[in-house]
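Amino acids appear as letters; backbone shape is given numerically. Here is one record.
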Amino acid sequence: MCGICGFYGSPDSKKDQQALLDRMNETQKHRGPDDRGTFLEGPAGLGHVRLSIIDLSSAGHQPMLYGDRYAMVFNGEIYNYIEIRDELIREGYAFHTNTDSEVIPAAYDRWGEECLTRFNGFWSIVIYDRVTEELFLSRDRFGVKPLYYTNLPGYFVFASEIKTLLQDGRIRREANDAVIFDYLVNGFVDCTEETFFEGVYRLPAGCCMRIDAQGRQQIHRYYELEQLTGEVNYQTVLKFRDLFRDSVKLRLRADVPVGSCLSGGLDSSSIVCESSRQLREQNAGTEQKTFSSCYRGDPNDERIFIDSVVAKTGVKAYFTYPDGDTLFSDLDHLIYTQDEPFVSTSMYASYCVMKLAHENGVTVLLDGQGADEMLCGYRKARFYYIKRLLSARRFGLAAKEIFYYLPYIRKGKNVSLLADLNMFRQFLGRSGSGDIRHRYLEPSFAKRELNNSYADNERFLLNDFDSIVLPALLRYVDRNSMAFSIEDRLPFLDYRLVEYAMSLPLNAKISDGYSKAVMRMALDMPEVIRNRRDKIGFYTPENSWIASHEDQYRAVFADPDFRAGKYIDRHRILRDWDKLTRGKDDIGLFRYICLEKWMELFDVHSKNAS
């Protein structure tokens, strides 16, 4: 796991090009504290900082030169590199390191772009062909690892993080109005290739880009996830289990300690149970560590479920207890870490877990992202499913699912049945007059049209996976983990497991009020967790945290230098402050705070601002 950066076709002198690469590497050093390097030749400049995971020797130094032809920078892991390397050796290729990195340019030389379909892992890769002077960039199938770029007059700049790009002072720090509108109204982020910075883009997941010697750019999609329809039987459960076990096995490959995040939900609990089983079978002799975020005295705290996993597996458990004071103290760094605004304080829980793991000497963590999106883990999936049953006139089955689910709708003091009903209205594509989501926007800005919505019911799983949900979660976990020099591995996003899960019908995922039905049958976990129908999710006591420092947060909107005035009706927010901080109008107040703080921290201006 590392950070990459560079450019193609810069008009600057070699001295200035080198200075830019050095600044970019320094900005992203948290992504790779173990080593750094640069490469300058012809029109290309490459930078790299390394977090050593496999082959900890200096042989893994990057930019990596392969033969006399390729220079490469790489961020990620190729889990099946041993198998690919053995195949290439049989075809006459030689290797001088034990790294997964060296396999990539060799595979590219042998198979070209097709090599990407052979990789099992996550990555952002940039390869410079020193013969043709062509630059090749790629991002993994689901976009676990980031790759951002922008085009400036006459040249191209790329990096793992936007803050790294911004080291080129010619990049304008201008807000993207369309992205901000989606964010404030629906809480959508990372839905398209556009970012909160106008003119800065992310290379889409499952895509690669080529820039030829004339500077012409072409983006090509090499991978497309499909949602098919299979059948459910006993073999379904066995295959799901076997694919999951093999995914975990691959992700335990490392030359450094591997731990796990543990929230008490199905996803992380099943990962901890399976990794513990495999480590025992391997007689690894290492004590597995888990890291959890809890909230003292909060009714939604999941410590009871976490403790059940600890008791079952015997792992060494570590806990962190974030609160309103620590959030207020860490907020600026959290926003800087994320590069762009984020939806809620739930990301702070992940931030604290990564910090805790770093403090306890763990470099690699297993985490559960992806399971909810492919196995109908969210509440909204039930709405979609029930709507489909009603449309198919399967009223009895629809009634049964409603009956089983009613006791679990929006449990907790910070949430409400009204919020679920408003969500259901959004899924039907109806906002209605007086929609609260527009109430605190600046009136002229509130008239914009949303670019993204929940209304495409036929593709809801693929939408969650491709645009609405998962891309944002992957950005959050990448920035939080890399801020503390940790590689976060995601067993549920093994492409083989994803493709299989997407082939299963909805009744394999939602059944008798349970989400993730096939997963509950296939994987090992404590029975108290297996039998849960409720879902807390990435919960934090956000309202009470804001209330604990409400004077300071109120001052954000009272500041005469308020930057987000084009988007936010701050006078109405100040007028209704007491109502908002006590949760009577659930507009996602934190989003409004986060947007303004982001504009301040990154010196971002709205369009047409003086």
About this structure: The first strand starts at residue 2 and ends at 8. Confidence is low (pLDDT under 50) at residues 410-416.
